Amino acid sequence: MMKNILEAPFLIEMVRTCTNMYQHGWDERNGGNISWLLDETDAAEYLDVNAAVRDIPTGFEAPALDGKYFLVTGTGKYFKNVQYDPAHNLGVVRLSQGGRNARLLWGLTGGGTFTSEFPAHMMSHAARLSVDPANRIVMHCHPANLLAMTYVHDLGSRAFTRTLWQMCTECVVVFPEGVNVLPWMLYGTNEIGQATAEEMKTARLVVWPQHGIYGAGKDLDETFGLIETAEKAAEIYMKIAHLPRLNTITDQQLHMMEARFGIKAREGWLD
Predict the structure, then answer these.
(1) Does residue 71 carry a pLDDT above 80?
(2) Distance (Å, rounded) from C-alpha 123 to C-alpha 140?
(3) Which residues are the active-site residues?
(4) Whole-prediction pTM value?
């Protein structure tokens, strides 16, 4: 007998995270999306993995993800509503046909479909898995300070990262590989999905200027924490950007933190 999926730990955690992201102001209206690569054994406890509600074409190929199960947010869905009606706002799909098709196993009731950023999510999953087999989460949202920073700061990945590292001592420890920044691109396309995936091979955070950020990690806590830390650093920057900077975290001090915490900042990004 199948367990009640509404009591599944992965669903409960997803609902809590969506609610938390909305309360942080990161996901206004239907902005933002999350995808979670589920363990097949976990999925099978709550779903008949051989019974599809319907098939949804994906519009792209992802052979590395064929047969994989994903819990995803739906397109046009408001994060604030996820806690009240998970089945309407979330869905579990299994990719098939080399990733060209998604078999809906649960959720997205009322004829809904997965997030419009699904291609970017799946391509990012494939890219992260190629460098970190433990990766499970891709998260996209619109944190206000990071967006504001993209209007007034050099968009070179090294320069952008160095500024974030200088804002909080924890930043170089939390994301030593830095933050990659794309040029402005039209969202919801395979092109931005491919570009994001390429940047995901070298960093877990990818900024879309004037739009938002993508984060990846092994679980929801890690991924949320990555974005939370970068957003806090951007907030500090936006509060002081117009003021003369009398003090900063120096590269020498960042090197001291490398030694103290056993991490290595991205090669060539510290002097």
Answers:
(1) yes
(2) 13
(3) 117
(4) 0.95
